[in-house]
Amino acid sequence: MINYIFMSDTPKIEQKALQCPVCKSDKAMIVGENVKLGGKFEDKEFLTTELTVLRCTKCGYYMLFDKMAQFTTKEESKP
Length: 79
Ligand SMILES: [Zn+2]
What we know:
The protein is built from no helices and eight strands. By secondary structure, it is mainly beta. The chain has one domain (about 1-75). The strands form three sheets. It has a three-stranded antiparallel beta sheet, with no helix packed on it. Strand 6 and strand 7 form a beta hairpin. The protein is elongated and about 55 Å long. It starts with a strand and ends with a strand. The structure holds zinc ion. Zinc ion binds near residues 20, 22, 23, 58 and 61.
């Protein structure tokens, strides 16, 4: 299992463990990179910036991050 760590792009090097907002699992996999989403809001069409899409491996919840977010993989150490 691979553990993805979300790193914010703040001046302080801050590592934040990724956590699914639904099931609180910290296991997710990247299912798409440089993904642009289009949609409509109040009769105006829009297109998002390039996003990275992660999917929770436990409940299947999709999480979207802009490309400022960086992900590193960390092998989970098994006891
Ligand atoms: Zn989940």
